[in-house]
Amino acid sequence: MPATARAAAKPAPRASARLAAVPRSDNRLPLILDAAARFFSEKGFGYTSMRDIAGMAGMLPGSLYYHFASKEELLVAVYAEGVRRIKAVVEPALAKGGDPWTRLESACAAHLEGLLEDSTYGQVVIRVRPDDAPEVAARLVALRDEYEATFGQAIAALPLPPRTDRRALKLMLLGALNWSQTWYRSGKDSPQVLARRFVRLLRDPLDA
Amino acid sequence: MPATARAAAKPAPRASARLAAVPRSDNRLPLILDAAARFFSEKGFGYTSMRDIAGMAGMLPGSLYYHFASKEELLVAVYAEGVRRIKAVVEPALAKGGDPWTRLESACAAHLEGLLEDSTYGQVVIRVRPDDAPEVAARLVALRDEYEATFGQAIAALPLPPRTDRRALKLMLLGALNWSQTWYRSGKDSPQVLARRFVRLLRDPLDA
DNA sequence: CACTATAGCAAACAACTGTTTGTTTTTGGA
DNA sequence: TCCAAAAACAAACAGTTGTTTGCTATAGTG
After folding, report:
1. What are the pLDDT digits (tens) for A67-84?
2. Residues of B in contact with A47 (CB under 8 A)
3. Mutate to test the interface with A, among B42, B171, B199 (most CBs of A within 10 A)
4. In this complex, do A204 and B205 lie within 8 Å of one another by their Cβ atoms?
5. Do B44 and A46 contact (CB within 8 A), yes or no?
6. pTM for this structure?
7. Rounded to a whole number, what is the largest CA-CA distance in chain A?
8. Distance of CA B23 to CAs B14, B58, B127, B172, Å?
9. Span A32-58, average pLDDT
10. CB-defined contacts A:B, below 8 A
11. What percent of chain A has pLDDT above 70?
């Protein structure tokens, strides 16, 4: 799918010898990020062309390369912003009061919010597989891990029976939440409702 | 990504007027399917070219079109075989004796087996999104649903407290299992061990 | 007002994509 | 042995891909 994939040095904002580069006020970089996030989240990384993105941002394909050295670098930027945004909703949820189970439920609801519906940046983080951009895969994984650690705190705080496998619990819950991108349809159950159901299934004893 | 995407009629095995078409003994079609399954599972649908597949099958790109009308039709064939194989391991697991919880655990282990490690066909079913092949997306979804119904039986048989949301339970468990493709690393915990852990987390009361 | 860094345009590039077409080889049944 | 069907080859097609290059406009600072 990539025509050529040679590593390219970053040509972007170069600093002059004595003065820091200062961006203009009519900076259209956010527009590019928005367009990329929209396409990456809806069609995936590989199915999105630089022309798609440039078109939606109202500029020519080549112009994107002033801001990003490559398509993959653009992905990194979107990915990073995605992680930032999910953390921005989950961390407050964790900081809120209530018992650990309630806080976990809030965190799950926040996670789903940052991942479904209109949160295109968040969707990218879950949808795009790091291997799709080999050159920067390691950085994407690092970004994802960074967030998952945040989520892990909610589980670490849980009062659980002595021998409970918390790692498995995290993998299970996070997997269930992330996979919701596959079956979730807007207009049906809200993220909050889903989070409540999932957490309840874990908390309440199912064995009759 | 598709250069041209006009709908093409199926040119493949055409039956003569009076005699059923009989395939040759040196039929290399399975080879094609194997190669496609391997690439689709490892690189994804969009990142795999017909040249990749043809190369691994030891033939020229154009020759694939004797067997399949399009790349998407080839995907359908692999997908169908994938569903067949997963069912082939899960259904026996369900038929085995034991209480419903044990049977569910067996089904989960089987599901994971058909989805991780060397089961390239099964991996395709989970990895490839139906929207990646718009022309045949509906058929892919139908195939997936067909299997998920099978899995649903294991959950329907569970003796659960009266008001338990079985649909949510299915979505949660299946999501957790499918997402394992993201973090699973061969050589660590086996599918059986993982299945046991996940089911136990659901079954045992976590609230202390 | 001059000047420099920022931002973007215009046009091309080489590589790669799925697919088609006409022809050739090979097989198995009559 | 003959021959139709099956299978594959060989070579091209038109379009798309990420990216590069040289040039121009514009904004903001001294």
Report:
1. 999 999 999 999 999 999
2. 1, 46, 132
3. B171
4. yes
5. yes
6. 0.89
7. 73
8. 11, 19, 31, 44
9. 97
10. 114
11. 87
